[in-house]
């Protein structure tokens, strides 16, 4: 079985908690989480806040909460973000309030984020469960990241280096799920998110 939980079994039984999902680019996080959303739409999926300009088709509050640098700085300083980081001149973060409200309502919460962000969440919310989504093998991931061989070799090199760095952090996570098949991976992740007593198979 590819799901390998660790830590303190039973410490959060009976109450919802935040699950943080990380994994290298190309591992299929979007596909697995889309299937998870189909299986259990009641799970709260955190929406990040960003200072980036919306792209065509993006909806405020659905894809991101779009804001300006001043408001983002205020939120970070006031402790309203579980984690935050800067990429390519734009800032991204996870609002604390919606996650805490979902958990208080009895809804499991899920956040997809990079390893660095997962570390910050662990520091600010120690009960959070960290899960890493893994490829079936390194060769499979390389095939996905290199694509058709038409991209600049330096871009490919940076992608592979970033993927290796993410995978090297697997020991910091509470569980792993290998994405050999999207539906199976989503089912295993769901078991981690809501507990083994609520199997998805009867509704898939």
UniProtKB/TrEMBL annotation:
What keywords would UniProt list here? ATP-binding, Cytoplasm, Kinase, Nucleotide-binding, Transferase
Q: The organism sits in which domain of life?
A: Bacteria
Enzyme Commission no: 2.7.4.8
Q: Which residues form the Guanylate kinase-like domain?
A: 16-194
UniProt GO molecular function: ATP binding; GMP kinase activity
The main location class comes to cytoplasm
Q: Which family does it belong to?
A: Belongs to the guanylate kinase family.
Q: Quote the function comment for this protein.
A: Essential for recycling GMP and indirectly, cGMP.
Task: Write down what this protein is called.
Answer: Guanylate kinase
């Amino acid at each position: 079985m590819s799901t390998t939980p660790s830590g303190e079994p039973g410490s959060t039984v009976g109450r919802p908690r935040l699950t943080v999902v990380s994994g290298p680019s190309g591992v299929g996080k979007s596909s697995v989480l889309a299937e998870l959303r189909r299986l259990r739409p009641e799970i709260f999926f955190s929406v990040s806040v960003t200072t980036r300009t919306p792209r065509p088709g993006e909806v405020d509050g659905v894809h991101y909460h779009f804001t300006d640098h001043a408001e983002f700085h205020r939120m970070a300083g006031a402790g309203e973000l579980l984690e935050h980081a800067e990429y390519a001149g734009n800032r991204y973060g996870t609002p604390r309030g919606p996650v805490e409200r979902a958990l208080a309502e009895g809804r499991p919460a899920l956040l997809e984020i990079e390893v660095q962000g997962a570390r910050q969440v662990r520091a600010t919310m120690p009960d959070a469960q960290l899960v890493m989504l893994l490829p079936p093998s390194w060769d499979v991931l390389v095939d996905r990241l290199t694509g058709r061989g038409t991209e600049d070799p330096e871009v490919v090199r940076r992608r592979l280096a970033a993927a290796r760095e993410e995978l090297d952090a697997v020991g910091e996570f509470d569980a792993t799920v290998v994405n050999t098949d999207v539906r199976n991976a989503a089912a295993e992740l769901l078991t981690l998110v809501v507990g083994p007593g609520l199997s998805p198979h009867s509704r898939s």
